[in-house]
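Proteins fold reproducibly. Take a sample protein:
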Amino acid sequence: MIELFLSAIALGLLFNAAPGAVFAESLRRGLRGGYRPALAVQVGSLVGDFVWAVLGLLGAAALFALPHVGTPLAIAGALLLAWLAWRTLLDGLGPMPIIEPAVAPQTGADGARAALAVGAAISLGNPMNVTYWAGLGGVITSLGAQQPGWTAFAVFLTGFMLSSVAWCFICAGAIATTRRRIGPRAWRALNLVCAAGLAYFAALVAARQMGWAG
């Protein structure tokens, strides 16, 4: 379970650190308002992620109760990780998207609530997230839980969400500190590091399913 927990923390950091729609919105609002609105977007997206995570992992846990399902789910999880690594690599090799500044700055509680709502809407508005989480549940058998039950899924979700919460503060702090100095090089480097990490986990899951790794 310790390996599963630590792997979940690492995966959580990799998934959250890969720049995407939430990061872009955090950066857009952070350029004008600094730390607080950037953090609010991150926390809002975390609420949506948690909802989809619970739904997806509950479905995966139910499937694991069926015979001869663990291996296909693990393979599907490895393919999912590989696909995410590929998409992240393409993002890193492509141009950094143009981040338009907020039309009107919002400060105080109203601005924080608006940013929170936007972050949640970005995450909750993508129903494919439940499929993503169900696929991610398939990697659990290869990351330290030979016969995963509800406890294993709870451990995985706890580790993943803990690192996600930590990333909210790390990301908002980095945006507030660097503000307009975030450029194409940093964008590319972050994507490439995340792509390499995701590819590593994809290879690890596949190798363990084939008996190539302990």
In short: The radius of gyration is 18 Å. The chain has one domain: 2-209. The chain has a mean pLDDT of 77.
